[in-house]
Structure formats: C-alpha cells, structure tokens
Amino acid sequence: MSAAPLIIRNVVPADRAQWQPLWNGYNAFYGRADATALPAPVTECTWARFLEPSEPVHALVAERSGQLVGLAHYLFHRSTIHIEPVCYLQDLFTGPQARAQGVGRALIEAVAARARAAGASRLYWLTHESNATARRLYDRVAQHSGFIVYRRPL
C-alpha cells in the first residue's frame, strides 16, 4: 500500500489549529520556546499576514491524509542587484512524523514555482550551521552562497 499523496497548498483560515503546532515546533527548534517563545502578538500578526492578499508574506502547508505535516513561509522583496523581486524562504519545517519523506523538498519546490510565477530572479534561505539534516537537503537543491549573517537588534 502506498502512502497517501502529499498536497502542497496555500494556507487557509481553517488550518490555524494544525499550523500552530508546526509553527511552535519550528520556533522551538531555533530556541524560541517557553521563556524565550515569540510573544503571542507576533504569531497573531504573522498568521493575519498570511491571509491578507496585499501582504508580501505567504504561507504554504504540506498536507497528507487531511493532516498538516509541514509549512513554508516566504516573502518577496526588492534588491539592489536585481530588477526583479527576490524570494526569501524564511521558515521551513516538517513535523517529526513526516521527516525523510520528501516534504521539505516538496515545499522548497513549491516556493520556487511560486517565485518563478511572480517573476522573481532568485530564491534564497538561511539555516543554522548546526542544522546538518536540513543542510544535506539544501546542498542537493541549491548552492551554498558562502555568506555569513550578522544581526543587530534595534
């Protein structure tokens, strides 16, 4: 018996209850949980942005047998080195029960397709250097740019 098909689609309001645990898992992976969790208003604003057509922030979900098993959040922005917009894949997460089943790759490919359709010249994303599992996939589907990220809270 084969596995149920994986469906990649835009998030809809009814997805909130299943999206939230994936979002929490993603944030926990990056140390944003318990005392360091994102403030609830950030999550509420993020969710509202996904559902607002005029926003440049978008969300896809991976669904199998009626259950959400992954998410991808991406946005378009301008660049000083491209005329066309570029697409930043900000968040990518697969639930533990669906890992190593092609969900991450399918979400990346779906974001890439949407970026192409929007006329974007490039798709890029970041990950932590310690995220060896994800980096194995990323090394197969993209080129490592060699850039190092710096942050300065304001």
Write a structural description:
The protein has a single domain (6-141), classed as 3-Layer(aba) Sandwich (Aminopeptidase), CATH 3.40.630.30. Strand 3 and strand 4 (86-94) form a beta hairpin. It has a 5-stranded mixed beta sheet with strand order 1-2-3-4-5, sandwiched between helices. The protein contains 4 helices and 5 strands, in the order E-H-H-E-E-E-H-E-H. With 154 residues, it is an alpha+beta fold. The radius of gyration is 16 Å and the shape is globular. The longest helix has 15 residues, at 103-117.
Give the helix/strand layout.
Blueprint: E1 6-10, H1 16-29, H2 40-51, E2 57-64, E3 67-77, E4 86-94, H3 103-117, E5 122-125, H4 132-141
Parallel strand pairs: 4-5
Antiparallel strand pairs: 1-2, 2-3, 3-4
The number of helical runs is 4
Kindly report the average pLDDT value.
91
Cα distance spanning the termini: 54 Å
Low-confidence stretches: none
Got a strand count?
Answer: 5
Domain module tally: 1
What would CATH call the class? Answer: Alpha Beta
Strand content: 15-25%
**CATH-assigned fold name:** Aminopeptidase
The CATH superfamily name is Gcn5-related N-acetyltransferase (GNAT)
CATH architecture: 3-Layer(aba) Sandwich
Biggest β-sheet: strands ordered side by side in the sheet: 1-2-3-4-5
Cα-atom Rg, whole angstroms?
A: 16 Å
Derived from helix and strand composition plus strand pairing, the structural class reads: alpha+beta
Based on Cα principal axes, name the global outline: globular
Instruction: Give helix % range.
Output: 25-40%
